[in-house]
Write a structure and sequence with these properties.
Blueprint lengths: L1 H11 L2 H16 L4 H20 L2 H10 L14 E5 L5 H7 L9 H12 L4 E5 L12 H11 L7 E4 L5 H12 L7 E6 L3 H10 L5 E5 L16 H23 L14
Parallel strand pairs: 1-2, 1-4, 2-3, 4-5
Helix pairs in contact: 2-3, 3-10, 4-10, 8-9
Amino acid sequence: MYFVLSKTLGTALLPINLLVELGILSLLLMVTRFAALGRNLAVTTLVLLALTAFSPLGNLLLYPLESRFAAWDPSHGAPDGIIVLGGSVDTDLSAAHRMPVVSHAADRMLAPAELARRYPNARIVFTGGTASLFSTDSREADYSAPILESLGIPKQRLILERDSRNTWENAIFTKQLVAPKPGERWLLVTSAYHMPRSIGVFRKAGFDVEAYPVDWRMGGRDELFAFTRNGAEGLGKTDVAMREWIGLLTYRVMGRTGELLPGPGKD
């Protein structure tokens, strides 16, 4: 049920989609006896669109997420395993073109290749099935494996988890697959904005991991109040951040994380 709601109601509430929905509603109201309300709603929607596209709103929402976990400190020693969360490869496009198509967050694929070279004894796990609402045989793990192999990771080192549909299932299925032993150190590779929810979910699943954030969308605190001249960039940042905050709130309500914004050393 949660998966269906996340792909329907959750998607409808994202800023870009919500603004389009409000715009359509305002137009419909204008041809009824509520025309004045429709005009007011249209003006409000345009103002919200401008704020979302050009104001620092996206940065203000992203910064608490991306700054929650610092870059991983290699001085603590070599990890026993490296977990890579899916989210880079578009399974539908990959299936259509019969080759891996990386649509975004390419750092999630590049980072484990470097880590694999640096730590030749570490196990490499890729976790990702399909996030499609409709049944499909396409699995992200199947398309990601050739990319990781082309980047220098031997096929025999790769462990693929291909059934998960979301972050919660990433944690549950990966733990079942690798059966981590007490005292082992595992790195978790995912986008910096996605790291708080990911760490919280893995902790709740009883799998202690260390954050290895990648794919930053901001340069740092200096950009916190910066306006953007590219409306699409501003809309994209706000959309990504709102999607993650909705996910954090939902997972906390469902008990899939121990707190709203998991951080270092928290339960």
